[in-house]
C-alpha cells in the first residue's frame, strides 16, 4: 500500500533489478573463476609433464630412467592433476562458508549474560531505584541519579517526553542491561543477587509491539511453558478478552497465527500479549505503551483487559491511556533522566508543572467511537467487470479475445458444424434412438465450451423446486471422476470418484447419480428413488436422452466469444441453437432480448479442514489472502473478492485443474481463499490455511414460476 500510494513502483523495481544485477555479476565472477581454474591447472600440469618427459628421456641432466620407472613416474604425476584441481575449488567453498559464518560467529562470540545470583525466594513486588545512572554509550547519560520507590500492588505511571528514559527503566528492572551504577532493589534485594531466570519469571512485559511467533495461539499464550495447562490457558484467554475472537477461528486455540501474528489485527495481537501475561501470572507487570498503536475501539477492548491484569499486582505503566494514568497511585514525571515531579494526578495538575503541560498537549481521551445501529444492508454483487487475461490456455484465450488468426481454422469449423448438424438430425429423424423418461427432465447446459455457471443454477433450481413441494433428482456426467457404469453420489463419495462439480451438488442431499450415459443415470435414479422431476447438469448435446425443458446458460461477460464453432471458436453448436431452448439464463449480465439475469452472490466463508462457516460480514482472518480459481472464468471470482474488500494475488488455473501441493505452496502464512469447486479437490491436502467462498444464485422468482408451469403442463 505504501509503495502504491507514493507511486514508488518503478523505484522499488529499480532497486530490485539493481540488487539482482549485482548478485548476478558476483555469481558470474565466481563461476568464471571456478571454471577457468580447471583448464589452467590442466594446462600447467600438461606443460610440467612435458618438461619432465623431455629431461627424463634426454641426457641433458644426466638422468637415466628405465622404461618401467619412467612409466610409473609419469602415471603418478598424472594422477596429481585431479587433487590439484580439487584444491583450486576449495577456495570458493571456503569463501561462501566464511560469508555465511560471520553472523553465526558473532552470535557465538556474544558475551553471555551475567547470572551469578542465587536467590530464588518468592517476589512480592516492592521496587526501589537507589541513585541509578545509566547510559547506552559513554557520551550521553539516559538516567542520572534516579531515585523512586514502588510498593507492593501499587500502580505507578511513568510519563515524560520521548527519550526521557521511560522504556530504559523497564529494561533495567528485567536486567536486559546490567552495566548501570547505583542499585535496583526488589523486596530489598538487589536484582543482581536474584537468579536471572527467577527474576524474569516474576516480571511480565506487555509492550507496544508484542513479539508473536509462527505457531498456534495456545503456544503463544503459554510461551516458555513446556507443559500447557489447559484450564489456566482458557482462564487467561477469557479474562484478557481473547475468547471472543479465538472462538471464531476455525481451529480455535490450535489456529496458526503466522509470522509475528500477521493473521491477527492489532487489537487481537495486544490481547494475546495480555493473555500471555495472565498465563505467566507474575507479581510485577510492566505496560510499555501497550495501546499507543491501536484505534479507539480496539483500545477500549484492550483497556478492559489491562484493568483486569493489573489488579493485585505491582504495575508500572509507561505513557499509557489517560484513564489508567489518572487512576494510578503515583505518577513519576521524568525529565533529563531523573524524576522531576512525583504525585497523584490531581496533585500534579495543581502543581502546574511539566505534567500539566504534557497532560494538556498529549494525554487527551479520544471520544468513544459511536457504534452504528441497524442491520447492514445485504449487497447484491452483480459481477460486471473488465475482462482480464487469465492464461486459461492459448486456444481458449484466443477464442474470447477474438484473435484474427482463428479464421485459418474456418475449414475445420465448417466440417465440425456439419457433423454436429448431421448428428442432431439423426436423432430428430429417428425418435426411436431417444429414450423418453416417464418423469420430466430439465436439462441445464450451454452451447459454449468452458464454465458458464451451470452448476450454481442447477443447485438453485433443485432447492427452489424442493421448497415448492417437488421431489427433484439430479443426474450428471461426473466430469473428471474415476468410476465405471453408474454411480450414486452421496456425502461420502470422494472427489476422485465424482469429479469436482458433483461434490457441490452432493451437499444438497438430493438423490443424485452420475454416468457418462445420462439416460442410464436417469433410469437408475427412478428405479431407486421416488422423484417427480429430474434435473440434468449439462447434457444439452446428449440427444439420446429426451428432455421436456431446456435451459441454456451463457456467461454475460464473455458471451459466446468470437461466435464461431470449434475449433475456430468455443461453440459446440451454432448460435441459432439458442432460439430453440425454453430459457436462456445470462450469468452476470448485461442481458439481451429475453435472457433471464442470474447473479452470483457470496453466501458464506467455510474453513475447509474444520467445516466451520462464517457469514460474509464475519470473516475471521486477515483481509490479505491468496486467491485461487480453477473455473471457467476465474476473473468473475477475483472480481467478487475485490468487491468484498480483500487484498490478494491472483492465481488462476484451467477449469477442472487437478491440484497438487506445489500449486498451493506460499512462503507466507496468509489464508488461501478459493472457489467451492476448487476446494472439493483440495480436502485431502489437510492444509489448515485453505478457505472457500460458497455462492448462491439470485434469479427473479418469475423464472421458477414459469418453470413450474411448464412442469405442471407436461
From TrEMBL:
Record has Membrane as a keyword: yes
Domain ABC transporter, first and last residues per copy: 127-361
GO BP field: lipid A biosynthetic process
GO molecular function, one term: lipid-A 4'-kinase activity
One family name in Pfam for this protein: LpxK
Organism superkingdom: Bacteria
PANTHER family according to UniProt: ATP-BINDING CASSETTE SUB-FAMILY B, ATP-BINDING CASSETTE SUB-FAMILY B MEMBER 6
Record's protein name: Tetraacyldisaccharide 4'-kinase
Organism: SAR86 cluster bacterium
Amino acid at each position: 500500500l505504501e509503495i502504491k500510494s507514493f507511486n514508488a513502483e518503478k523505484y522499488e523495481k529499480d532497486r530490485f533489478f539493481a540488487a539482482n544485477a549485482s548478485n548476478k555479476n558476483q555469481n558470474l565472477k565466481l563461476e568464471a573463476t571456478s571454471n577457468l581454474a580447471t583448464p589452467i591447472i590442466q594446462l600447467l600440469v600438461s606443460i610440467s609433464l612435458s618438461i619432465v618427459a623431455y629431461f627424463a628421456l634426454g641426457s641433458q641432466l644426466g638422468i637415466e630412467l628405465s622404461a618401467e620407472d619412467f612409466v610409473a613416474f609419469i602415471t603418478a604425476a598424472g594422477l596429481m592433476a585431479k587433487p590439484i584441481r580439487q584444491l583450486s575449488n576449495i577456495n570458493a567453498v571456503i569463501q561462501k562458508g566464511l560469508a555465511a559464518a560471520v553472523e553465526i560467529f558473532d552470535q557465538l562470540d556474544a558475551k553471555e549474560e551475567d547470572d551469578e545470583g542465587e536467590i530464588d525466594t518468592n517476589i512480592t513486588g516492592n521496587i526501589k531505584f537507589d541513585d541509578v545512572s545509566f547510559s547506552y554509550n559513554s557520551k550521553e547519560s539516559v538516567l542520572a541519579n534516579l531515585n523512586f520507590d514502588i510498593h507492593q500492588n501499587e500502580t505507578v505511571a511513568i510519563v515524560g517526553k520521548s527519550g526521557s528514559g521511560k522504556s530504559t527503566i523497564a529494561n533495567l528492572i528485567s536486567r536486559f542491561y546490567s552495566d548501570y551504577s547505583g542499585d535496583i532493589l526488589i523486596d530489598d534485594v538487589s536484582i543482581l543477587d536474584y537468579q536471572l531466570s527467577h527474576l524474569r519469571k516474576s516480571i511480565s512485559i506487555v509492550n507496544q509491539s508484542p513479539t508473536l511467533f509462527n505457531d498456534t495461539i495456545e503456544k503463544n499464550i503459554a510461551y516458555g511453558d513446556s507443559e500447557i495447562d489447559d484450564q489456566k490457558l482458557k482462564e487467561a484467554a477469557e479474562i484478557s478478552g481473547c475468547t471472543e475472537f479465538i472462538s471464531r477461528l476455525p481451529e480455535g486455540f490450535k489456529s496458526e497465527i503466522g509470522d509475528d501474528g500477521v493473521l491477527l489485527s492489532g487489537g487481537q495481537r495486544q490481547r494475546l500479549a495480555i493473555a500471555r501475561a495472565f498465563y505467566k501470572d507474575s507479581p510485577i507487570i510492566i505496560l510499555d505503551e501497550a495501546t499507543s498503536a491501536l484505534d479507539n475501539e480496539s483500545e477500549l477492548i484492550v483497556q478492559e483487559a489491562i484493568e483486569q491484569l493489573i489488579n493485585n499486582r505491582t504495575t508500572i505503566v509507561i505513557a499509557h491511556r489517560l484513564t489508567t494514568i489518572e487512576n494510578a497511585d503515583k505518577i513519576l514525571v521524568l525529565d533529563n533522566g531523573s524524576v522531576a515531579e512525583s504525585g497523584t494526578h490531581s496533585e500534579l495538575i495543581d502543581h502546574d508543572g511539566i505534567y500539566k503541560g504534557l497532560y494538556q498537549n498529549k494525554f487527551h481521551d479520544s471520544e468513544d467511537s459511536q457504534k452504528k445501529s441497524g442491520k447492514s444492508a445485504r449487497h447484491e454483487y452483480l459481477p460486471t467487470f473488465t475482462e482480464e487475461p487469465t492464461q486459461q490456455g492459448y486456444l481458449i484465450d484466443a477464442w474470447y479475445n477474438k484473435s484474427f488468426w482463428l479464421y485459418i481454422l474456418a475449414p475445420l469449423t465448417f466440417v465440425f458444424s456439419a457433423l454436429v448438424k448431421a448428428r442432431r438430425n439423426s436423432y430428430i429423424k429417428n425418435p426411436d434412438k431417444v429414450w423418453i423418461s416417464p418423469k420430466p427432465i430439465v436439462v441445464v447446459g450451454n452451447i459454449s465450451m468452458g464454465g458458464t455457471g451451470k452448476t450454481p443454477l442447477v443447485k438453485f433450481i433443485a432447492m427452489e423446486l424442493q421448497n415448492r413441494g417437488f421431489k427433484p433428482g439430479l443426474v450428471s456426467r461426473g466430469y473428471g471422476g474415476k468410476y465405471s457404469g453408474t454411480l450414486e453420489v452421496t456425502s461420502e463419495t470422494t472427489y476422485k470418484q465424482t469429479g469436482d462439480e458433483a461434490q457441490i451438488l452432493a451437499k444438497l442431499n438430493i438423490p443424485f447419480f452420475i454416468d457418462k450415459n445420462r439416460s442410464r443415470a436417469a433410469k437408475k435414479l427412478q428405479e431407486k428413488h421416488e422423484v417427480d422431476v429430474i434435473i440434468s447438469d449439462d447434457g444439452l448435446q446428449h440427444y439420446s436422452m429426451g428432455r421436456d425443458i431446456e435451459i441454456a446458460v451463457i456467461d454475460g461477460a464473455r458471451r459466446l466469444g468470437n461466435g464461431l464453432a470449434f475449433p475456430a471458436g468455443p461453440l459446440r453448436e451454432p448460435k441459432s441453437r439458442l432460439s430453440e431452448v425454453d430459457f436462456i439464463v445470462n450469468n452476470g449480465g448485461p442481458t439481451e432480448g429475453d435472457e433471464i439475469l442470474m447473479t452470483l452472490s457470496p453466501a458464506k466463508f467455510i474453513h475447509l479442514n474444520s467445516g466451520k462457516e462464517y457469514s460474509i460480514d464475519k470473516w475471521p482472518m486477515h483481509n490479505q489472502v491468496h486467491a485461487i480459481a480453477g473455473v471457467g472464468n476465474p476473473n468473475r471470482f477475483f472480481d467478487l473478492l475485490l468487491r468484498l474488500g480483500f487484498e490478494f494475488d491472483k492465481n488462476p488455473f484451467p477449469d477442472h485443474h487437478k491440484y497438487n501441493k506445489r500449486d498451493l505452496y506460499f512462503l507466507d502464512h496468509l489464508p488461501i481463499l478459493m472457489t467451492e469447486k476448487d476446494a472439493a479437490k483440495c480436502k485431502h491436502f489437510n492444509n489448515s490455511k485453505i478457505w472457500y467462498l460458497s455462492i448462491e444464485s439470485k434469479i427473479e422468482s418469475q423464472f421458477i414460476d414459469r418453470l413450474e408451469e411448464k412442469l405442471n403442463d407436461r
